[in-house]
Design goal:
The structure holds two protein chains of two kinds.
Chain A: H1 3-23, H2 35-38, H3 48-61, H4 63-66, H5 82-87, H6 90-99, H7 114-126
Helix pairs in contact in A: 3-7, 6-7
Chain B: H1 2-15, E1 18-19, E2 40-49, E3 57-69, E4 72-83, E5 88-99, E6 109-119, H2 141-144, E7 149-162, E8 165-176, E9 183-193, E10 210-222, E11 225-226, E12 233-242, E13 247-256, E14 264-274, H3 277-285
Antiparallel strand pairs in B: 1-14, 2-3, 2-14, 3-4, 4-5, 5-6, 6-7, 7-8, 8-9, 9-10, 10-11, 10-12, 12-13, 13-14
Helix pairs in contact in B: 1-3
Chain lengths: ~130, ~290
């Protein structure tokens, strides 16, 4: 095989690998959310008590990865980002919490039950203001 | 000596940083919920029982459960027991790994469980298989510990979360690495927090801090005599309480359902979760 062909193949492999790596990187999960989950609304939307309760649940279960104020840590993303605050609906976030993103280290939180998940989402979304 | 104590104390300070675990109140049944990646949970589970015609005993298991990945949990156990009018002995160790093959939540979520155990005279009763029952408790510890059990245990764990309820079923197959046949067992449990929504204010005894349910488990014979004949079966309510300090206390009175079972077992446990254990450890080293 000529040197030129080897370089072309190496470049192709690099391109495919990069596409795969960045394709499944943060945010790719948004494309996996089914339409009916995407459209779900938060029964606790904008309720101050739910935000306060969500802050407590967040402190107990989420803060050690995402930071005490959801600012993110070395390995885990911030939740004040444009993606979480604007691009993702409350339904999207609920889907993510139920299913997790296990390849990326995010576990499923279905064990908390829907009310607590919606409370956490109410809190996370309140961080935008 | 003083340096060693200071080092241990400083390590403890580094390690303090608990997470409020949302544990299921099960003692024998495994749910499909894995340990969060990076977290280490330390658990102490005990069982007290009085087999007919034998001495009362306390079986204990110290567990170290670590979340390797979101889909992989590894756990190491140290077992011991104390028998009245007999002795207190270390009975062995176990190492298990649980893998979650489906990486999303489904109606039924399977988890594959594989364990190696090296025990003798074990009375922790963390699983009942084959024809385990009252006759196993008849021998004094000195004789019972001569019988080494080196076993591979596999489980298919099925779990579902639905409207706050957790339903878990375990199908168990165990093989002694000597020439014994495969033995089988089962366990199932249902539980639910007393309140699903969290309170807006800190509280100690509010409903979401408690989970209650029922648990049932027993043997299913072995390869040559499959079924419930000459097997022990247990059933009982179970409850746990997650304290604000990060500890979870569990309790369950369990009742033997036939003459081959110990009439009553009292199980109690304490667990404590250290969040991001290795991260803290290495930060402490630096």
């Amino acid at each position: 095989m000529s040197r030129h062909k080897t370089l072309v193949i190496a470049a192709l492999i690099s391109l495919v690998t990069a596409t795969l790596v960045f394709g499944v990187a943060d945010g790719a999960w948004l494309k996996s959310v089914p339409a009916h989950d995407h459209e779900r609304t938060n029964p606790y939307h904008d309720q101050p008590d739910a935000v306060a309760a969500g802050r407590r649940v967040f402190a107990d279960h989420c803060s050690h990865c995402h930071g005490a104020n959801a600012e993110g840590t070395k390995k885990r993303p911030p939740l004040k980002s444009l993606r979480v605050q604007k691009e993702a609906t409350e339904g999207d976030l609920h889907w993510l919490l139920v299913n997790g993103n296990m390849r990326k280290g995010m576990p499923s939180w279905s064990k908390l039950g829907d009310p607590q998940l919606w409370q956490v989402i109410a809190y996370v979304k309140s961080l935008h203001e | 000596m003083i340096r060693d104590i200071a080092l241990c104390l400083s390590m403890l300070v580094i390690l303090i940083g608990c997470s409020r675990a949302q544990e299921r109140p099960y003692f024998v049944t495994y749910s499909h919920e894995m340990e969060e990646p990076g977290n280490l949970e330390i658990e102490l589970f005990n069982v007290v029982g009085k087999p007919p015609g034998a001495n009362r005993f306390l079986g204990s298991t110290m567990e170290f459960e670590y979340g390797v990945k979101a889909w992989w949990t590894s756990e190491f156990y140290l077992d011991g027991q104390a028998t009245i009018n007999d002795s207190t002995i270390f009975t062995g160790y176990r190492w298990e790994n649980r893998f979650r093959p489906l990486l999303r939540e489904h109606w039924i979520n399977p988890v594959i469980y594989v364990e190696f155990e090296n025990t003798s005279a074990d009375k922790a009763l963390r699983e009942i298989v084959g024809h385990d029952g009252v006759p196993d408790f008849a021998d004094p510890n000195a004789i019972a510990r001569e019988d080494k059990e080196r076993e591979i245990e596999t489980k298919l764990i099925l779990g579902s979360n639905f409207r706050g309820w957790n339903i878990s079923e375990n199908i168990i197959a165990e093989k002694n690495l000597s020439n014994d046949p495969w033995e089988f067992g089962y366990a199932w449990a249902i539980s639910r927090p007393l309140k699903l929504a969290a309170s807006a204010h800190n509280c100690t005894f509010c409903g979401e801090k408690f989970q209650a349910g029922i648990e049932m488990y027993g043997g299913l014979g072995d390869r040559y005599s499959f079924g419930t004949r000459l097997t022990s079966q247990y059933f009982g309510p179970t409850i746990n309480w997650a304290t604000p300090g990060g500890m979870t206390f569990s309790f369950s009175p369990q009742f033997g359902l036939n003459d081959y079972s110990i009439p009553r077992l009292y199980r109690f446990g304490i667990s404590y979760e250290i969040e991001q254990f290795l991260g803290r450890f290495f930060r402490g080293m630096r």
